[in-house]
Design goal:
Layout: E1 2-5, H1 11-27, H2 38-41, E2 46-53, E3 56-67, E4 70-78, H3 87-101, E5 106-112, H4 118-126, E6 130-132, E7 144-150
Parallel strand pairs: 4-5
Antiparallel strand pairs: 1-2, 2-3, 3-4, 5-7, 6-7
């Protein structure tokens, strides 16, 4: 698998992001959806990558700069055809490494509290993320859980 920068968000990534947004609409009420749309992913404070496997987009993820010391994981999504093949681990590791290279002290994320998000929460836990209070502009929400990881300097 290979990680590629995709800030232009090509056709394959567009389809995967649209699938991600449809999933959010199924599992989260509108006021609790924090997934970025295509325009949101093209903002200057966002870096977006795809993970490719034999010419197919297996997954994606983004890193948002909150400030000079903290980043946020956004838009983690694995293609249904590539579930349980390691794409999510590959992109998550890449985002963690990039955040550390940028000198961030903390990497945080928001995810759903519903059962549909349990696999994602287990993945983040396995990489050392712990539950925390809302960060940035987030507010407490029964449909959201917040996680963070201190990064080694």
């Amino acid at each position: 698998m290979e990680i590629k920068l995709d800030n232009d968000i090509g056709k394959e990534a567009t389809e995967l992001i649209m699938d991600h947004l449809r999933d959010m609409a199924i599992h989260s009420p509108p006021e609790s959806r924090h997934a970025l749309n295509l325009d949101g992913l093209k903002q200057p404070d966002i870096t977006f990558w795809g993970v490719w496997d034999d010419g197919e987009l297996a997954g994606c993820g983004a890193l948002k700069e909150l400030d000079s010391e903290q980043g946020e994981i956004k838009s983690m999504k694995t293609s249904p055809a590539h579930l349980r093949k390691g794409a999510a681990k590959k992109i998550l590791l890449h985002i963690i490494e990039e955040a550390a290279k940028r000198g961030y002290r903390r990497l945080s994320l928001e995810t759903g509290s519903m059962a549909a998000f349990a696999p994602a929460r287990r993945l983040y836990e396995s990489f050392g993320f712990t539950y925390c209070e809302p960060f940035g502009n987030y507010k407490a929400d029964p449909n959201s859980l917040f996680m963070t990881k201190e990064l080694k300097m």
